[in-house]
Specification:
By secondary structure, this protein is an alpha+beta fold. Helices cover 61% and strands 14% of the residues. The chain contains four helices and four strands; from the N terminus they run αββααββα. A hairpin with a 2-residue loop joins strand 3 and strand 4. The radius of gyration is 17 Å and the shape is globular. It starts with a helix and ends with a helix.
């Protein structure tokens, strides 16, 4: 495997595996329950999101969302194959693994399994899963790396 592509592959495999394992676990634990209170700010719930972030595009057919996901993953793989920075390679892997985890849910269940519910009082953040978390962490790493590179560029004499 060339260059830092191994970091992309490893991060994608870990994100995908952790996502699928956690979804399987949540489905087992939630059987017969609608909500399990864990702490004063965190519950386990079981839901299926047929759209994308925050329920957008709920009416879109699953095949369309799967096709868009595959196109995005392909573009990220091309980027990763040309990347030299390990942090960027890991970030891309997290996004790819998360996207593939949610895509597999769409294929298997016609929607993405969400089960993590954080709240303050009666205000709930939309339920999400580890694939979503991997995608957000990957994007944050990309932003951090871009900022770091820009700062290094600005401080050069």
């Amino acid at each position: 495997m060339r260059g830092v592509l191994k970091y992309t592959s490893l991060a994608a495999a870990i994100a995908f595996g952790a996502d699928q394992l956690s979804k399987w676990w949540a489905i087992q634990v939630m059987e017969g329950h609608t909500e399990i209170s864990v702490t004063g700010f965190f519950n386990l719930v079981l839901g299926r999101n047929t759209g994308v972030s925050f329920g957008l595009f709920n009416e879109a057919p699953p095949w369309l969302l799967v096709g868009i996901t595959l196109a995005i993953v392909l573009m990220l793989l091309v980027w990763a194959s040309r990347e030299r920075q390990p942090i960027t390679a890991v970030a891309l892997g997290l996004i790819i693994g998360g996207a593939l985890g949610n895509m597999l849910d769409r294929l298997r269940h016609s929607g993405v399994t969400d089960f993590l519910d954080f709240h303050i009082g009666g205000i709930h953040w939309p339920a999400f899963n580890l694939a979503d978390t991997a995608i957000v962490l990957g994007v944050m790493l990309l932003l951090f790396d871009a900022f770091r590179r820009e700062m290094r560029f600005l401080t050069r004499p």
